[in-house]
Design a protein that fits this description.
The structure is a homodimer of 576-residue chains.
Chain A (H helix, E strand, L loop, with lengths): L2 E8 L7 H17 L4 E3 L17 H17 L4 E9 L3 E9 L2 E7 L11 H4 L7 E5 L2 E7 L9 H7 L4 E6 L7 H16 L2 E6 L1 E4 L2 E4 L3 E3 L5 E4 L6 E8 L1 H9 L1 H9 L6 E4 L22 H19 L5 E5 L3 H14 L4 E5 L7 H14 L2 E4 L3 H10 L1 H4 L6 H22 L2 E4 L3 H6 L12 E2 L6 H15 L6 H5 L19 H13 L4 H6 L4 H13 L1 H5 L28
Parallel strand pairs in A: 1-2, 2-3, 6-15, 7-8, 8-9, 16-17, 16-19, 17-18, 19-20
Antiparallel strand pairs in A: 1-14, 3-4, 4-5, 6-7, 9-12, 10-11, 12-13
Helix pairs in contact in A: 1-2, 8-9, 9-10, 9-15, 11-13, 17-19
């Protein structure tokens, strides 16, 4: 009987916090040891945090990461720990250390380096070329890293053929909506194809525009779920794996022998750990099997986690938000209040001559419902001071977007002044639909440190707002905010639809153009009016300069603005 | 006798302007044909422009680039043209097409894909693996692309061994100070090692934060300069190459035969073009041999080119600049006036209660000297309106950076209002030393579309200002601007040195830390005070969020802020 007690440490690391990450790992190694775990795994690059980006170009940083790994290694006695770190040899490697009996017993180098979407791993790392299989007592364990397991011909296959009964994959798998479910489908295919268990250990938490959802899982060789950690929370997921059946199936699979013969001898590195680690008389553990959250709850938790971690990891306690009385700032405030506690959130209503009574009432009611601090700072005198100051230069011109933007920028200045005076981080409130077409004022409503819902299309803003009310079982976001026509209130009787197509149309075109890189003809063929499609594409293309100066925000779609989408500002390409 | 008339078309393409780039190429092919050129080369990715970034992910864009190439091919009759484009097969390739007799006669795929610094080529392209040698009459010509020639073991070697007498390298080689000279040293080594001529065709012009310096050259097999185009200007550089001596040397080199035997048969693709193109009775051409500019003139021209192209390629005619009376805005205004003509530049002096008479006089004098439009918009009434508006929220606090920044942000708002009203692009004026330590106000003096001198350290700002006066032979930038102590004038008697080390010390530490990734101990060992080094590093590290929201500006150093340096905002790593 081949039994292995495995622990997946789904932790929230912080980029650059080598000491903090080390301490967290050391504590969990000790905890797992108390629970008689044989092998504990930590996420990809757990020591430096993920992604460390150009910190990797600092030799002192890589050196300090190696020192931290050594400190962890010394504590790994009587247990085997798999820890992500940056290895340095002839080059840099995205690596997994196998720590055993107080030392680094083996090292695996990531083979598949993603260099698309938000990833730049070819910028930093050299790819490894040797799959690793370690023997832990009678169990054989393959170790690989994140992207490695997404390829059918990747190291998982070689490891299974070389006799691994379980493959541990350590990951830092960035979230987008529905990612956990698609990841689990992929893992189920991978284990069934290779007749091997898989223990997938993902990190959790936010890092700039990325959020990691956790959702670590263990699947048996048929793709059945053995254990699943919660999403968006730290957890030590422990399970006892009986690998006997895998061992038997591998031995009796005739196709396997053929494939194995094709494996070049020596292409797999095998490391036998000196001592058997299993303790046969320990009490069995019942693994947790957390459910996957429903789709809206999942996105909402991603936004909470990304916001909380950006604020906290950057050393802020409190945030400030400009409330307009509209749905975007309402949802942003609700997320902030949930992520940081109501007492840490201040919202500011900044009425002008164009602000409606409804807006004020709705903003006040929202603040009251959330229990957050509410301030009202009327901007009209200051707006008048600008108009007077600019009267000379503007003489003979008609009021236009210039005067509208002055109002938005006064509000931006007020929020930044509060930030500078009191140390509050400014959260901006623009949604993805607006960001896409540039329906926002640079240095105005775009001014701030973190853009909570910048990757949330308007349609989803409404759904999430309803979700906020549903989950509380009462009206947090006032009904009127959810039903009134969106408006920027920068001129009399303005509504968003003066400048933009109706949001369902806009969001449909944007999904096709921004998300899926479809050409104009394809989008028109989907049933949209050609002139409208052309307008939307033109607005997206000409506002790249605004997005380039926007603060980061939580990525929740397969393609967010930021590292995920790198278009030139200077760009004369036009769809016809 | 093996003679070849070669033309290097050092052109300024625009990213995405497939039609415009195509037309420019077609015109020069015709021009070269009139001058009886055998082979004309265009820069890397001349059809799509460089770098096209994520436009490459749009199938319609790649398709349109192929169509444009076909249109160019039809005009290449009686001449051979080498044209950079995006090839699409099983994957995307950064490619060079050999156009001959109206069709694409051969295609080379770039082998070395840079993925460091500002480059992301692994994000888009698959690497080629077959060096290409074409026969043009009796001449054999190797073709490769940019990064390929920087590697001693790259395709140049295989091409020379396969009998190429000249290697044409088509490039888009981003500028930094001194790059042309170092590139020429590399090329001289490469030709001498391989006994081959090199014709290096570089693009010229600005693209977002990059500028390309041109400086296309032809070197003979001893590394002697045969021809050199001007830097920072379009040019059709033509030379007659007598390849006889190379042919003879290659034939009689015994070491070459040994090396050649090691070349795997079939690793080099050979394409014989159907017709001999040489015309023996044409009149010889005397090639130009432009001098390299001196170091200050070179940087100055880079800033002019980068600024002009950003403004013009983005469709702007006019710019607006906030003048403070200090050296940074003075240099920025001088560059703008030179790049765009004085009549297209408006400068705005925006005095507050803390502005000195000297500042006003110096700003006025500068505007007068440059012949640019000057406006004065006093901000004090508006500043007072802010103070009144914020009196409640700020009650009980002492004036601090919050009130200082309000002034800077009022100025930012004024410039943006003028931009919105009149369609002028705002140029910002911060230098690299300030950007490094975050000594600038987000949404204040950082507000604008293009940051002309953001990669110019303070020390170099002074040198370039002196250069502006020298090249005009008169005082453009008033003497007092060059000698007075730098100040932001945001509170009484403020100077930069209240908050920062003296600029020579600051710039020295920044060069070591930002540019060279040196650790604190190393920098202290260079002779700097430890507490000062620690202060500077702390300021750099904690202001990444500001730089992330800064506009692009011209890269002139080996490592600029922007695509060149990708640090996380959330980052707890601290040098000790």
């Amino acid at each position: 009987m081949t039994k292995l007690r495995i622990a997946l440490a789904q932790i929230n690391t912080t980029v650059g916090d080598l000491g903090g990450n080390r301490d967290k790992i050391v504590d969990l190694v000790a905890d797992a040891k108390r629970q008689e775990v044989d092998v504990i795994a930590f996420p990809e690059l757990a020591i430096p945090g993920y992604p460390p980006e150009d910190l990797l170009l600092k030799p002192s940083f890589v050196e300090a990461n190696l020192a931290a790994l050594d400190e962890v290694a010394r504590t790994a006695v009587g247990i085997t720990a798999i820890v992500g770190f940056v290895d340095r040899g002839d080059d840099l490697y995205n690596a997994a250390a196998v720590l055993h009996e107080g030392r680094v017993a083996a090292v695996y180098h990531k083979t598949y380096l993603p260099n698309y979407g938000v990833f730049d791993e070819e910028r930093y790392f050299c790819r490894g070329d040797r799959p690793l299989v370690i023997s832990c007592g009678r169990a054989s364990v393959g170790i690989n890293i994140c992207e490695d397991i997404w390829y059918p011909a990747g190291p998982t296959k070689a490891q299974a053929l070389a006799g691994a009964q379980v493959v541990i994959n350590i990951s830092a798998s960035p979230y987008h909506a529905g990612k956990a479910a698609s990841r689990e489908r992929m893992l189920a295919t991978r284990v069934a194809d290779n007749v091997v268990f898989c223990a997938f250990c993902n990190m959790v938490g936010g890092q700039d525009e990325l959020v990691f959802d956790g959702g670590s899982v263990i699947l048996d060789e048929r793709g059945e779920m053995v254990a699943r950690a919660n999403c968006f929370a730290e957890e030590l997921l422990i399970a006892d794996l009986d690998l006997t059946s895998v061992f038997r199936q591998q031995l009796h699979d005739p196709r396997r022998r053929k494939e194995r013969a094709r494996l070049v001898e020596g292409s797999v590195e095998r490391v036998a750990l000196p001592a058997a680690v299993s303790s046969p008389d320990r009490a069995p553990i019942v693994p947790s099997l957390a459910p996957l959250p429903d789709p809206l709850a999942e996105v909402y938790q991603a936004l909470i986690t990304g916001t909380r971690d950006y604020v906290r990891k950057n050393g802020f306690q409190k945030v400030v938000i400009g409330l307009s009385g509209g749905v975007d700032s309402a949802l942003t405030a609700a997320i902030a209040a949930h992520a940081l506690d109501a007492e840490n959130v201040t919202c500011v209503f900044m009425p002008s001559r164009y602000s409606s009574v409804d807006s004020r009432e709705d903003a006040e009611q929202l603040a009251h419902n959330l229990g957050i601090r509410y301030m009202s700072i009327p901007i009209d005198d200051t707006f008048q001071a600008y108009l007077d100051m600019l009267a000379g230069p503007f003489a003979g011109t008609e009021p236009n977007v210039a005067e509208e933007n002055v109002q938005a920028r006064i509000r931006g200045n007020i929020l930044m002044a509060l930030s500078n005076k009191f140390g509050w981080l400014v959260l901006t409130t623009g949604n993805k639909s607006e960001m896409s077409v540039g329906y926002a004022t640079l240095y105005g409503d775009m001014a701030g440190g973190f853009a909570v819902i910048k990757d949330v299309p308007k349609d989803l803003v409404y759904k999430l707002s309803a979700h906020v009310n549903d989950r509380q079982g009462r009206q947090i976001i006032p009904e009127r905010i959810l039903i009134k026509a969106p408006t920027a209130e920068l001129r009399p009787n303005q509504t968003d639809q003066d400048s933009l197509p109706p949001y369902p149309v806009l969001d449909g075109i944007l999904a096709a153009y921004v998300q899926e890189d479809r050409a104009m003809d394809e989008i028109v063929a989907m049933g949209y009016d050609r002139a409208t499609v052309a307008d939307v594409i033109r607005m997206v293309d000409r506002t790249e300069y605004k997005r380039r100066q926007a603060p980061p925000g939580v990525k929740i779609t397969p393609r967010a603005f930021g590292k995920d989408r790198r278009l030139p500002i200077t760009n004369r390409y036009r769809e016809h």
